Amino acid sequence: MEDKIHKLVPNGSCRDINIVVLGAKGVGKSATIVRFLTGRFIGDYDSQMEAIFSTNIPIDGKQYTINIMDTVAYVPGKELKEDPVFWADAFMLVFSLTDVSSFKAAQQMVDYIRRMREDDRMPILAAANKSDLVHLRTVSSADCEAWCLDQNCLSCEISASEDPMSVKTAFGMLCHRVRVINKKREKLSWTLQRPAVAAKLHLRQSLKNLAEKKLWRSRTFTF
What we know:
The protein has 223 residues and is of the alpha/beta class. It contains 6 helices and 6 strands, in the order βαββαβαβαβαα. It has a 6-stranded mixed β-sheet, sandwiched between helices. α4 (141-151) links the parallel β5 and β6 (154-157). α1 packs across α5 (164-193). The protein starts with 15 loop residues before the first strand and ends with a helix.
């Protein structure tokens, strides 16, 4: 697996998707990334490694370059690094179904991302890992789904060690959400650039400015 380091700048290409994978220590972030990129499962990783890997996949019939950043373990109560937060087009928050504290850490990360990006539509997927360890499960599906619905997050259960398809599906869901949102933004941008629409918006703004000017004069006269 080739490590391709990218400059941390906003993504300007509609055919590139930057994904940051976040999570507490031991939840399987690196294992999930490697499983997606290579199909292999490796259980032991350097928890202090931070790197970006790239691969090409088809999404809705078009080829996209997916840049995936593996991050160091998130420590609850500690702020995330700003560069990855603003570089990302989407986030995958991995937590363990056998560790309630990792689920709470994911909740904190969502709050921080929403606050920093100031965008409720920012694609975030909560990936509940270790679904194969049923006998050790401490986080219920109902709790996960209710929280994700409230936070406008995608959600799925995966097993990096036992179920490669679940990992592939998770990344596919997230990439598709990015594509849908980008298409809506491109359509809105194209609409706003049309001469008739631009002229209407200009007129509306001029009328608003005129009304505010008259209101200011009226208040000044009253004083």
